[in-house]
Amino acid sequence: MSWQAVEGSFRDPSGFVYTRGGILYRQVNRSFRQPFEAFLASGLYGELARDGLLVSHEPVSLELSATDDACAVLKPERVGFISYPYEWCFGQLQDAALLTLEIQERALTRGFTLRDSSAYNIQFHKGRPLFIDSLSFEPVEEGKPWAAYKQFCEHFLVPLALMSTRDIRFGALLRSYLEGIPLDLGSKLLPRRSWLSLSSVLHVHLHAWAQGRYAGSAVSSAAPGRTMSRKALVNLVRNLSAAVRRLSWRAAGTEWADYATDNNYSDTAARSKREIVAAHLAGSSPGTVWDLGSNTGEYSRIATKIATLVISFDMDPAAVERNYRRARHDGETNLLPLQIDLTNPSPAQGWAGRERLALEERGPADVLMALALIHHLAIGHNLPLDGIARYLSRLGKALIIEFVPKTDSQVQRLLLSRPDIFPGYTKEGFEEAFRRHFAIHEVARIQDSDRWLYRMTSRRETSS
To answer: For the range 406-413, what are the long-range contacts, defined as Cβ-Cβ under 8 Å and sequence gap of 24 or more?
Structure first.
């Protein structure tokens, strides 16, 4: 049976991830046999997996290896949805940073260290951040500094500091800088008051200066005689952890942060909408639901009662932050809030455009929900109805969508600042455009409202 490499794992010579017959495997190459066997024998893997910090795996036969270079083959627990740091809210990036540091400290107590501290080693699974790279651990060498220190600062500390002290939108830089926001850039962008923070001075400003100072030097001569004891390494990790915890962001002040409570639904309309959405979902029996434009996740939580996994997308950073904080506080294990602008969704990125998957490549979802969204796309962003329908038909097998007419106050709000150049934006025009790409099964009017809810299935699904 042939195998297919997972493109995002090709850089590590110690092993890689692949699928065979739809099942996910991780191959450990012979070159990494000794460190990997020592890692297992130390009890560190068992401790981290038991505590839900590291992905668990099951060893399987070498006959399932992808190449002859294998010394072991693992079958890891599969994550329901792959997300990336540039799709996370502030709280998610902060929690991922703290997980990385907790794992590094635990590793040091058992004589191991993380070889790398990439944010891409973290996924969100069952409501919590989870470290997914079992080959990141190696025995610590006495006196040797933490090799992944710079990477941690660029992947976590610098973006968090910028988001906290400058503007939450600086998190979007992670989409351009897949290797992390460079130290020198972070040092230039941080406000002057950051020089009053000892952690910013040590881990960003002086760190950036040192990197520039020794940029042209050989590794062996960049810091002659420099060593770090095990205790010093632990203190570094704890100092970084304290620095990360001190950073904060108040989830407010954005355009749609309060939309869930500041809209034109009467109590009757809100109840009617919830009932219709729940009925449509129950009729679909979905495994996965993508709630597009979910705001703080009110309707996503209706879906969690039925679906195995709900991905709750919104472009507003405050809405996503609130959604995530609630999910974390309430221990919701099948809801994943993510920050994605549907008018500019995450593209395929990285080497050869294959390391990081486009949003569309991570679907299709069993059911899409697009509630109170169509007017933002069609009128707020001048997107043609046919183009919206075509794209949504690629993202999901079925669709629950709300049509909001021009008579609605929220549409009138959008039209205040622009001329009405949307003659085709009518209920009839909407249905005509969507019928080209979907089969419409049910239409229901929301009580005490001019809005309509539709249940559809993609014609791509019926023709495949």
So the answer is: 407/450, 408/264, 408/375, 408/449, 408/450, 408/451, 409/264, 410/263, 410/264, 410/372, 410/375, 411/375, 411/379
Q: Which long-range contacts (CB under 8 A, 24 or more apart) does 60-68 make?
A: 60/25, 64/20, 64/25, 65/27, 66/3, 66/5, 66/16, 66/18, 66/20, 66/25, 66/27, 67/27
DSSP of 419-441, one letter per residue?
A: ----TT-SHHHHHHHHHTTEEEE
CA distance 216 to 197: 29
Measured CA to CA in angstroms, residue 86 lies from 165, 245, 354, 363 at distances of 18, 20, 16, 18
Residue recorded with tokens 């939450």: 168
Task: Answer whether residue 255 shows pLDDT above 80.
Answer: no
Phi then psi for residue 239, to 5 deg, are: -65, -40
Strand partners, 72: 28
pLDDT confidence of residue 222: 45
Provide, rounded to the nearest whole percent, the portion of the chain with pLDDT above 90: 88
Partner residues linked to 291 by β-bridges: 312, 369
Write the pLDDT tens digit of every residue in 390-433. 999 999 999 999 999 999 999 999 999 889 999 999 999 999 99
Residue type for position 314:
D
Helix (H, G, I), strand (E, B), or coil: what is residue 80?
coil
Whether the model pTM is above 0.85: yes
Please, how many CA atoms are within 13 Å of residue 321, restricted to the half-sphere of its CB? 23
- Using CA atoms, how far apart are residues 161 and 167, in angstroms rounded to an integer? 9
Name the nearest CA neighbour of 294 among 401, 219, 379, 372.
Answer: 372
The tokens for 184 are 């020198």
> For 313, phi and psi rounded to 5 degrees?
-95, 140
What is the C-alpha separation between 194 and 363, in angstroms, rounded?
42
